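Following up on my earlier message about nicotinamide-adenine-dinucleotide. Here are the inputs again, as you asked, copied directly from the submission form:
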Amino acid sequence: MTTQISISSSQGSYDVVLERGSLIHSDLYVAPVTNARRALIVADEAVTSTHAAAVSSSLAGNGWTLATLTLRAEEPLKRMEAVESVWHAALELGLDRESAIVSVGGGLVGDIAGFAAATFMRGIDFIQVPTTLLAMVDASIGGKTGINIPLPGLDVLGKNLAGAFWSPKLVLVDPNTLASLPQRELTSGLAECAKHAIIGDPSLAECLRSSAADLAAGNLASIDTIIEQAINVKRLVVEADERESGQRMLLNFGHTFGHAIEPIASLDLTHGEAVAIGMQAAAACSGRLGLASTARICSIGSLLQRMGLPAHTRESLPIAPLFEAMRYDKKAAGGRLRLVLPTEDGVVVRTDVEVADIEAAWHAVIPDAVS
Ligand SMILES: NC(=O)c1ccc[n+]([C@@H]2O[C@H](COP(=O)([O-])OP(=O)(O)OC[C@H]3O[C@@H](n4cnc5c(N)ncnc54)[C@H](O)[C@@H]3O)[C@@H](O)[C@H]2O)c1
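Thanks, got it. Here's what our run produced:
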């Protein structure tokens, strides 16, 4: 079965094609959306010889001129050097303004490849082939690309602080690729699905709750429906506010808290795990401000934990450096933190949250935290 979801953007609308087994006939979907017949495939190391090879063989069999550049998907490597390596490989292959970059991998490689496509020769066609759940439902939808850059005076990278809006020509989702994804990464993607459910789709929350046991046992029969519903939440939000001046900020739910702890190596958190802890911190904050009832806060926590996501960090941390890291969050407004906090039936953006409330939220998710 093939599901097509059309997403409109100021750079033109594009389709998300959701079909099991689609990678082996990628050309069928890629060729009609671009004039390019020369492309650089930017492949996640974990899928170069499997899923990227399937895409490459379909395109090569239909006359494309191709090369594959393999990138290691590690967050500290998502920086300018990686983008330069894509530009260099593009030049070596002789790409020009009529060529394309095809990313095959998770959100990390997609963000790098997308930023390279947005900037190479001032922008060439970009095709996304996401192979993680997170990339399928979130990172590949909505045209955001970007890299991390070092924060002045701190020994950590600021997440996604440089980038571009660059819509893909096509997002080709083959849920069969998830069979090779480690369970922990699948769970990380479920955090973003849960985020979409909490923001605006109670039926997705129900579907996640009822599928939790199967998903934990590696049975992915229900994943196509989850992917489709989660993409549709993201579609509605990005179509309403492509450039993140309003509603799109809602997608940042859990991220301002999550981004502050994600780079801390000793915590060893995936993006989804950090965001899940961030969502629970935000929920605690809502509770203090009276924005959500105890029942709603508990239901957010129980959904995330049912997905196998952590409720708190596994070690204690001082809170002051977390405030420093939050300050650099690109959603800060005029020096004030912009927090997305759950309400009874959705989420709301607040810029007036007091330091004491944020501190209390951190205490709710960090055992024995030192203020
Ligand atoms: N652009 C956006 O709108 C947006 C939105 C959300 C997240 N992101 C970014 O996405 C990144 C996180 O993405 P992610 O969760 O996909 O992580 P990831 O890209 O780091 O991939 C996770 C791991 O899975 C491996 N992998 C990927 N596909 C696989 C497969 N099919 N089988 C086996 N292994 C596979 C990767 O090599 C990696 O080790 C972060 O950098 C985040 O900032 C971007």
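One observation from looking it over: The two ends are 53 Å apart (CA to CA). Hope that helps, and feel free to reply on this thread.
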